[in-house]
Amino acid sequence: MADQSIQELGHIIVLAGGLSYEREVSLRSGRRVTDALRALDLDVELRDADASLLDSLRSAPPDAVLPVLHGSMGEDGAIRDVLDLLDVPYVGAGPDACRVAWDKPTAKSIVRAAGLATPPSVTLPKEVFHDLGAVALLDRVVSRLGLPLVVKPARGGSALGVSIVHEAADLPAAMVGCFAYGDTALIERHVQGTEIAVSVIEHDGEPTALPAVEIVPAGPLYDYTARYDAGDTEFVTPARIPAEAARQAATAALTAHRALGLRDLSRTDLIVSPDGRPHFLEVNVAPGMTETSLFPRALTAAGLSLGPTLRALITRRRFP
Question: Is 214 annotated as a binding residue?
Fold first, then answer.
């Protein structure tokens, strides 16, 4: 269907914003995507996911939607359920796949069953943390997983609420910081190595892994500031890892994409340990599209451009 004319794509809505903690990042992604598609003379409207959206979609249905909503609603399947109810085609994974990928402990279980390595972990809801006695419980976590640990919300993105814990005495504070962004904490054994992201894009329905992007933050953690403030992180593409490790990382990203039932595009975050083995951390169904984001960098490294790539995905959804 790649021969469909630009006019036949019709009116496209880029959906961004929302009310999650990642609202501003989503708006930045939305503006960049909108500009890239308008540069191709497409009829594109940037819309916020606000109280007026549903009436707008019902009264003037778009021909396709490109969701670049980050955080809850955008990645937990809810907005895609709404689009399905309205029979509006959209780019990206369906609601069920989004819900599975959004929940990091569930995603880890599924990719582990598919053969991927992922750091040993414990998942603790806030109620269990408080009701069973925080001190004794966390002592047991340290005994089982060792140090250092990574504490992160079980659902969420942009490293909000994420901490690296090197001393057992710092774990309670890390848990409190995590619970500020969600009711459930995922505590993982910290894997030393090279942090990379491998994006996946589908061509004619076949997933393809893009070159791995190596992430070298200025500080100890690739946190919110390091992700979105230009100059705070060094990105190297392709990643400086052995060829066999790069092959395994690409395979891991493709395995995660397929095992979780994703479609069109995704980004898998991994740590490559010194022995060259990739360890799955999490997957993103709505990769960031800002000027510092990893997905556009991977596209560039593969010799692809953002606008034409997204246009091809829209065409597939508009004319399945």
Answer: no
